[in-house]
């Protein structure tokens, strides 16, 4: 599952039964364990967009055709969950 914290702290607690009990349940000889991939994001994961970001707003991007004629737009934290209480604005300026 993907997890996301709305604050600057997240605690993850992983509880398992004994290794022997797990082996009996699964009849597996494979080693047990887990892997976690994590990422600290301060830009809502939107740094890959080629747009000008407003310094006054958390999620406000300006796309200008004189800078780039095409590109991609992502929702915040894509492909993860959309953050709570975030309103994003994407402004487009085409050539006249």
Which secondary structure elements does this structure contain, and how are they paired or packed?
Blueprint: H1 19-26, E1 52-53, E2 60-64, E3 89-93
Domain CUB: 59-96
Keywords: Disulfide bond
InterPro entries: CUB_dom, Non-NMDA_GluR_Accessory, Sperma_CUB_dom_sf
Describe it for me?
One of its GO terms (cellular component) is plasma membrane. With about 100 residues, this protein is mainly beta. The protein has one domain (about 1-95). The chain contains one helix and three strands, in the order αβββ. The chain has one helix at about 20-25; strands at about 50-55, 60-65, 90-95. Strands 1-2-3 form a three-stranded mixed sheet, with no helix packed on it. The chain is elongated. The mean pLDDT is about 75.
Compact summary:
This protein has one helix spanning 19-26; strands at 52-53, 60-64, 89-93. The protein is mostly beta strands. Strands 1-2-3 form a three-stranded mixed beta sheet, with no helix packed on it.
- Supply Rg: 21 Å
Q: Would you tell me the structural class of the helices and strands?
A: mainly beta
Biggest sheet architecture: 3 strands, mixed
Strand adjacency order, main sheet:
1-2-3
- State the end-to-end distance: 46 Å
Tally of separate domains: 1
**Quick one: overall form?**
elongated
Mean pLDDT: 77
Strand content: 5-15%
The total beta strand count reads: 3
Element order: H for helix, E for strand: HEEE
Q: Determine the number of helices (DSSP H or I, runs of at least 4 residues).
A: 1
Proportion of helical residues? under 10%
Please mark out the parts with pLDDT under 50 across 5 or more consecutive residues, or reply none.
Answer: none
Keywords: Disulfide bond
Protein name: CUB domain-containing protein
Domain CUB: 59-96
GO cellular component, one term: plasma membrane
């Amino acid at each position: 599952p993907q997890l996301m914290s709305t604050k600057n702290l997240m605690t993850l607690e992983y509880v398992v039964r004994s290794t022997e009990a797990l082996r009996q349940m699964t009849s597996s000889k494979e080693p047990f364990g887990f892997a976690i991939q994590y990422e600290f994001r301060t830009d809502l994961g939107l740094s890959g967009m080629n747009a000008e970001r407003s310094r006054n707003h958390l999620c406000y991007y300006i796309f200008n055709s004189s800078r780039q004629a095409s590109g991609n737009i992502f929702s915040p934290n894509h492909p993860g969950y959309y953050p709570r209480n975030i309103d994003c604005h994407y402004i487009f300026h085409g050539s006249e």
